[in-house]
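Hey, can you fold this one?
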Amino acid sequence: MDSRILSAIRLTGYGTWGLVGLSGLLLGLEMARQAAGLWGLVAASAVFPVTVAAAPWLALLAWNTWLPVLFVYGGGTLGTALIALSTPPASTS
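Sure. Predicted structure:
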Protein backbone atom coordinates (compact mmCIF):
# COMPACT_ATOMS: atom_id res chain seq x y z
CA MET A 1 0.00 0.00 0.00
CA ASP A 2 1.15 3.55 -0.66
CA SER A 3 3.08 5.12 2.23
CA ARG A 4 0.92 8.26 2.08
CA ILE A 5 -2.21 6.21 2.64
CA LEU A 6 -0.58 4.35 5.52
CA SER A 7 0.53 7.65 7.05
CA ALA A 8 -3.01 9.02 6.77
CA ILE A 9 -4.42 5.91 8.44
CA ARG A 10 -1.82 6.13 11.22
CA LEU A 11 -2.57 9.82 11.71
CA THR A 12 -6.28 9.01 11.94
CA GLY A 13 -5.48 6.40 14.60
CA TYR A 14 -3.49 8.87 16.68
CA GLY A 15 -6.21 11.50 16.23
CA THR A 16 -8.80 9.01 17.44
CA TRP A 17 -6.67 8.27 20.49
CA GLY A 18 -6.36 11.97 21.24
CA LEU A 19 -10.07 12.65 20.80
CA VAL A 20 -11.28 9.82 23.02
CA GLY A 21 -8.60 10.45 25.63
CA LEU A 22 -9.48 14.11 25.86
CA SER A 23 -13.20 13.37 25.99
CA GLY A 24 -12.64 10.84 28.79
CA LEU A 25 -10.59 13.38 30.72
CA LEU A 26 -13.19 16.13 30.29
CA LEU A 27 -15.97 13.75 31.31
CA GLY A 28 -14.08 12.78 34.46
CA LEU A 29 -13.23 16.37 35.35
CA GLU A 30 -16.86 17.44 34.95
CA MET A 31 -18.09 14.55 37.08
CA ALA A 32 -15.54 15.42 39.79
CA ARG A 33 -16.53 19.08 39.66
CA GLN A 34 -20.22 18.26 40.02
CA ALA A 35 -19.59 15.85 42.88
CA ALA A 36 -16.96 17.72 44.92
CA GLY A 37 -16.62 21.22 43.50
CA LEU A 38 -13.27 22.88 42.99
CA TRP A 39 -11.28 20.46 45.15
CA GLY A 40 -12.72 17.48 43.28
CA LEU A 41 -11.60 19.10 40.04
CA VAL A 42 -8.11 19.65 41.45
CA ALA A 43 -7.88 16.05 42.69
CA ALA A 44 -9.13 14.63 39.37
CA SER A 45 -6.60 16.77 37.51
CA ALA A 46 -3.76 15.53 39.70
CA VAL A 47 -4.52 11.89 38.89
CA PHE A 48 -5.72 12.40 35.31
CA PRO A 49 -4.72 8.93 33.99
CA VAL A 50 -6.99 7.36 36.60
CA THR A 51 -9.67 9.92 35.75
CA VAL A 52 -9.58 8.98 32.06
CA ALA A 53 -9.76 5.26 32.83
CA ALA A 54 -12.43 5.41 35.55
CA ALA A 55 -14.75 8.19 34.35
CA PRO A 56 -16.62 6.16 31.71
CA TRP A 57 -17.33 3.39 34.24
CA LEU A 58 -18.48 5.91 36.85
CA ALA A 59 -20.73 7.49 34.23
CA LEU A 60 -22.19 4.04 33.59
CA LEU A 61 -22.94 3.60 37.28
CA ALA A 62 -24.13 7.15 37.96
CA TRP A 63 -26.01 7.94 34.74
CA ASN A 64 -26.89 4.40 33.64
CA THR A 65 -25.59 4.88 30.11
CA TRP A 66 -23.09 2.81 28.15
CA LEU A 67 -22.22 5.59 25.70
CA PRO A 68 -19.12 6.94 27.52
CA VAL A 69 -17.70 3.42 27.97
CA LEU A 70 -18.29 2.57 24.32
CA PHE A 71 -16.88 5.89 23.13
CA VAL A 72 -13.71 5.93 25.23
CA TYR A 73 -12.79 2.25 25.21
CA GLY A 74 -14.19 1.49 21.75
CA GLY A 75 -12.48 4.57 20.32
CA GLY A 76 -9.21 3.60 21.97
CA THR A 77 -9.48 0.13 20.47
CA LEU A 78 -10.28 1.58 17.05
CA GLY A 79 -7.30 3.94 17.26
CA THR A 80 -5.03 1.06 18.26
CA ALA A 81 -6.28 -1.06 15.36
CA LEU A 82 -5.72 1.75 12.84
CA ILE A 83 -2.18 2.34 14.09
CA ALA A 84 -1.39 -1.38 14.09
CA LEU A 85 -2.76 -1.88 10.59
CA SER A 86 -0.82 1.06 9.19
CA THR A 87 2.53 0.15 10.74
CA PRO A 88 4.69 -1.92 8.39
CA PRO A 89 6.10 -5.13 9.82
CA ALA A 90 9.69 -5.09 11.01
CA SER A 91 12.10 -6.59 8.51
CA THR A 92 14.20 -9.49 9.65
CA SER A 93 17.54 -9.64 7.93
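Helices lie at 3-46, 48-63, 67-86. Let me know if you want another pass with a different chain boundary.
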